[in-house]
């Protein structure tokens, strides 16, 4: 059985394959040109490969790590043909993801603790509200009772957008007026969740990054006030990143991990970009589990990130 094949629904796998099509087409077109007319992996091929990985938004540090691993294999095997390069790249990237992601697959299931509170952070425009809506849909589909908290009170549009998702998924939302104290909304949401015996709480937060100190203070206050209702919340801080922004996603991850304790990641909009390599780099550099990836517009297209299926799809040759 192929190392990279695991139990994964056919429909989800097809969506993942399609969602990564732009990334892998770009990657393999560049790789084919780099190895054209060459029979062995030499310094020139490795230099070209380094450039390809960096231009695919894998990131400099992660690229150097991958190249070093391939150099070690070339040295050990004495001769390495370019025909084997795909397989070796696949194995080394899968190994890298396993080291940074661990062996536990993310799921929509949680501990029996109720309510399980997820605070969702990320800059405006990354697909944060849409991600919350899709998560709410999938948690509800999994039989969970879900409540949304509109704690991004900085923008009226954010509250309205979350209300639209609450209506679409048919779940309750706790909100106040624009300009209200975000911590007050979070407090009310958790309190309401306890009264309603809810399983999952999804708290939206403001996505301002122009002043990291203010962001840090605001997120700290939201946590502190929620803990007056129930201790040790949030149970999870999910950072949403826009995969189509490439290196900018790295910068956002740096800013938010400095501002608050991020415990999981969702990388969105991978279907509309050739920058899918960003998932590999972010996973490796931040050592924070990538829990979800967005590979389409549909409700089901926010997928649980399966590292082996991701690698399998990324290295599946595009049919001409």
TrEMBL record:
Name used for this protein in its record: Signal recognition particle receptor FtsY
PROSITE patterns xrefs: SRP54 (PS00300)
Subunit structure: Part of the signal recognition particle protein translocation system, which is composed of SRP and FtsY.
GO CC annotations, alphabetized: cytoplasm; plasma membrane
Domain annotation SRP54-type proteins GTP-binding: ranges: 289-302
Enzymatic reactions: GTP + H2O = GDP + phosphate + H(+)
The keyword Nucleotide-binding is annotated on this UniProt entry: yes
């Amino acid at each position: 059985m192929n190392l990279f094949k695991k139990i994964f629904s056919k429909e989800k796998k097809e969506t993942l394959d399609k969602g990564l099509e732009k990334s892998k087409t770009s990657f393999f077109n560049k790789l084919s040109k780099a190895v054209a007319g060459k029979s062995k992996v030499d310094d020139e091929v490795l230099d070209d490969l380094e450039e390809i990985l960096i231009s695919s938004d894998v990131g400099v540090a992660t690229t150097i790590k991958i190249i070093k691993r391939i150099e070690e294999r070339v040295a050990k095997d004495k001769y390495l043909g370019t025909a084997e390069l795909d397989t070796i790249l696949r194995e080394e990237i899968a190994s890298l993801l396993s080291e940074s992601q661990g062996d536990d697959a993310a799921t929509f299931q949680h501990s029996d603790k109720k309510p399980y509170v997820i605070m969702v952070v990320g800059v405006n425009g990354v697909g944060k509200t849409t991600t919350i809506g899709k998560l709410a849909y999938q948690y509800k589909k999994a039989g969970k009772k879900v409540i949304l908290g509109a704690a991004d009170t900085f923008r009226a549009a954010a509250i309205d957008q979350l209300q639209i998702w609450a209506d679409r998924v048919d779940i309750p939302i706790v909100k106040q007026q624009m300009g209200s104290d975000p911590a007050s909304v979070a407090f009310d949401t958790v309190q309401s969740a306890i009264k309603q015996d809810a399983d999952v709480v999804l708290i939206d937060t403001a996505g301002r990054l122009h002043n990291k100190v203010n962001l840090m203070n605001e997120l700290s206050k939201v946590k502190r006030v929620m803990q007056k209702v129930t201790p040790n919340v949030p149970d999870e801080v999910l950072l949403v990143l826009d995969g189509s922004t490439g290196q900018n996603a790295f910068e956002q991850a740096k800013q938010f991990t400095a501002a608050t304790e991020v415990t999981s990641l969702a990388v969105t909009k991978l279907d509309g970009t050739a920058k899918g390599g960003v998932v590999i780099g972010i996973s490796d550099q931040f050592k924070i589990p990538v829990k979800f990836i967005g590979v389409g517009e549909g409700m089901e297209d926010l997928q649980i990130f399966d590292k082996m299926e991701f690698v399998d799809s990324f290295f599946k040759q595009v049919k001409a």
